[in-house]
Structure formats: C-alpha cells, structure tokens
Amino acid sequence: QVQLVESGGGLVQAGDSLRLSCAASGRTISRYAMGWFRQAPGKEREFVAAISWSSDRIYYADSVQGRFTISRDNAKTTVYLQMNSLKPEDTAVYYCAADWVSARMTRSTVGTWGQGTQVTVSS
pLDDT digits over 42-72, tens only? Predict the structure, then answer.
C-alpha cells in the first residue's frame, strides 16, 4: 500500500505561484498514475490534473489548463503541481491521488489519497 503526503500549501495573493509536492512511501509509485484533486468548502472534490506513470499522458481540468503544471520524479517518488497565476477561486484543500489503472482518474477510481494541503488565495 502506498502512502501519500502533500506539502507546499499556504496563503498567497492572487497572481502568485505555489508548488505543491506529494511524497510517496510504502510502495513505489513508478507504475501508478498520479493526480491532484481539490475540494473547496461546501463543494465536491474535483479533478485538477493527472499524469500517467511514464509521463506520456497528462490531463488538466479546464479551469487550470495553462496555469498549472503536473510533473513527477519517479526516482524521488514525488509528484509536483506547479500553480501559477493563482486566483481566489483556486482556494481549496488539494489532495494527491494514486490510481493503479489510468491517468483518466475520477474520485471513484482513485485508490489512495493523501491527507490534503490547504491553498488559500486572497484577492
């Protein structure tokens, strides 16, 4: 079983950047598709970005396309989410996710979740 721990969240102003990290332990993630989801207060958890185990397939939600970049370092068992041009509507708890089957992941297909890291963007 893989364990995921997110870091890098914080309070920033609109237009700023943040980089989230997700460190995996317990089992190699080199064959897992990895992704990020987020959940704002009162809303459902939503897909943000995902990357296949070989990094040859990457998907983004329309709301973050062009501003966020997902990447992974299998040697370091770490997944990153670079977030640029942040907006107040990006405010949420961000969760790292591992999916054994596909990078086209959904809430129901994710096998392992991290505990989440808070991102707050002030206007």
Answer: 999 999 999 999 999 999 999 999 999 999 9
Gap between the Cα atoms of 113 and 18, Å rounded: 20
Residue ranges of the chain with pLDDT lower than 50?
A: none
Determine contact, residues 107/45, Cβ cutoff 8 Å. yes
CA angle 30/31/36 to nearest 5° reads: 80
- Greatest distance between any 2 Cα atoms in the chain: 40
Hey, what are 95's tokens?
């969760």
Pair of tokens at residue 44 = 């459902």
Kind plus residue range of the DSSP H or E element containing 22: strand 18-25
